[in-house]
Amino acid sequence: MKKRLQDEQEAMAPGNEEEMNRPVGKILVTTEQIALAGGIKAALDEAHSAASMKMTPRAITAYEAVGAAPTEDDGAGVVVQIVVGSEEELREAIGAGAEAVLLVGVSAEEAQRLGEIARGLRADCVVEEEKEEEI
Fold it and tell me: Most Cβ neighbours (<10 Å): which of 27, 38, 123, 126?
């Protein structure tokens, strides 16, 4: 994950305006990236850092900033989603600040149960289930 984040940082270096202005939309944190980062919290921290680098700072005073939420023009449309496969991982991810989770390797019943837990812990949590493709 660090290599991927380094590549993103290099792409955002001064002089690469085209890359900085491209909409990102979503950053997906996979199980491999979680392992490389050393855990769920560390992986989410790296992904949130990469997402924040896509934001465009506004020139406003502290008084103007009070109550002003970032807009999509500022880069606030970037969602960090993390892959989870158990209740323990789900709770850890939401505790670490996950705003969206992708349930992988769970049954439909378990996915529904985990979705209810996620929304109980964070009402605005986006919960998606990985669908297996039929051949």
Answer: 27
Task: In whole angstroms, give the CA distance from residue 42 to residue 34.
Answer: 8
Residue ranges and CATH numbers for the domains of the chain are: 2-129 (3.20.20.70)
Task: Locate the DSSP E strands across the chain.
Answer: 26-29, 79-84, 100-103, 126-129
Taking the C-alpha atoms of residue 26 and residue 135, their distance in angstroms, rounded to an integer, is: 27
Kind plus residue range of the DSSP H or E element containing 127: strand 126-129
Full-model pTM: 0.67
Residue 58, amino acid: R
Tens digit of pLDDT for each residue in 11-69?
A: 443 343 443 444 448 889 999 999 999 999 999 999 988 887 776 666 667 766 666 66
Look up residue 15 and give its amino acid. G
